[in-house]
Each structure stands twice: as structure tokens, then as C-alpha cells.
Design a protein that fits this description.
The chain is built from 4 helices and 4 strands. The protein has 161 residues and is α/β, with parallel strands linked by helices. It has a 4-stranded parallel beta sheet with strand order 2-1-3-4, with helices on both faces. Helix 1 crosses helix 4. The structure holds 4-nitrophenyl phosphate.
């Protein structure tokens, strides 16, 4: 893998301003809590290019901040074909993102839906774009519980602890 011995993971949504920055930030936070931050290379991206170069949405920054999760330093970028072989784990926020990733080329079984790891059942992570604070909180809550299980899964598969 291109990142030496690190496990690489990228979170993908449509705009890379609401959901996937939360995925990246929450996953980093949880990995740090377990003392595993150095084991990972993390990123996020959008299948669309509407917000390239922009920081995360204020709604995402606000809800993350309430729970002590930082989204500082993140800037939106577009997911490209070149990303497909680069990441051990490509984590799509919804089935439309998942389809758009698969359309780019030949993924090697490394593309997942985040909610495959949801203890409350599979589905899409709802898009809070254009909605209020409650929507951002709901999205954060789903992403947090999924990222906990995703990290547990990776720890088990890669014998990290
Ligand atoms: P995200 O939300 O995919 O979670 O970042 C969206 C952000 C922007 C747009 C749609 C969804 N947009 O249409 O600009």
C-alpha cells in the first residue's frame, strides 16, 4: 500500500463538507482515544466537485465541536479514479456515493458503506445539507456509532491491540 505500514482510510460523501469531514474527524478522535492515531492515514473526499477547497460546513463544525471533535485543517476535495487503489478502506456515506465510486473503475473490494458497521442496521447516512441543527446532530450520532464499530473491526482484522 502507498502509505508504508499505515492503514489508510478515506470517508466519502457528495460535497465533502457535511458528512465525510465528520467521518474523518470522528474516526481520528476515536483512534486517538485508543492510542492508535499513528497507525492510520485518514482523509475525506466528495464524489462531486462543488465545494473544492472549502472548509467543513458550519453545522458539521458546530456539532463536532460540542463533542470535542476537531475538524480543523480539513478542506474539501473531489474523489478521483486515482483514489481507488490508494486506500485500504473507502467508506461511502450513502448508496449514491457508493455507486458513484464504483463507476470510476475497478475497486478491489475496498469500498464499503459506513452503515455496514451500524449496530442499529444498514442504510444511508442522512445528508444534513440545507437542514437545521437537529439534522446535523442526527448525522453526527449515526457517524459516531458507526465509526466506533468500524474502528473495532479494523483493530480486530489488523491485530492492532
Ligand atoms: P455532504 O452534503 O455530501 O454530506 O457534504 C452536501 C453538501 C453539498 C451539497 C450536497 C450535499 N450540494 O449540493 O452542494
Amino acid at each position: 500500500m502507498p502509505f508504508n505500514d499505515k492503514i489508510s482510510i478515506v470517508f466519502v460523501c457528495l460535497g465533502n463538507v457535511c458528512r465525510s469531514p465528520l467521518g474523518e474527524g470522528v474516526f481520528r478522535h476515536l483512534a486517538a482515544e485508543k492510542g492508535l492515531i499513528d497507525k492510520f492515514v485518514k482523509d475525506s473526499a466528495g464524489t462531486g466537485g462543488y465545494h473544492i477547497g472549502e472548509p467543513p460546513h458550519p453545522g458539521s463544525r458546530s456539532v463536532a465541536g460540542k463533542f470535542g471533535v476537531s475538524l480543523d485543517g480539513q478542506l474539501a476535495r473531489q474523489f478521483t479514479k486515482g483514489d481507488l487503489p490508494k486506500w485500504d478502506y473507502i467508506i461511502a456515506m450513502d448508496s449514491s456515493n457508493h455507486r458513484n465510486i464504483i463507476k470510476l473503475g475497478n475497486p478491489t473490494g475496498n469500498v464499503h458503506l459506513l452503515r455496514e458497521f451500524d449496530p442499529k442496521g444498514c442504510g444511508d447516512v442522512p445528508d444534513p445539507w440545507g437542514r437545521g441543527d437537529d439534522a446535523f446532530l442526527e448525522t453526527y450520532t449515526i457517524i459516531y456509532r458507526c465509526c466506533e464499530k468500524l474502528l473495532d473491526h479494523i483493530v480486530r482484522v489488523h491485530h492492532l491491540m
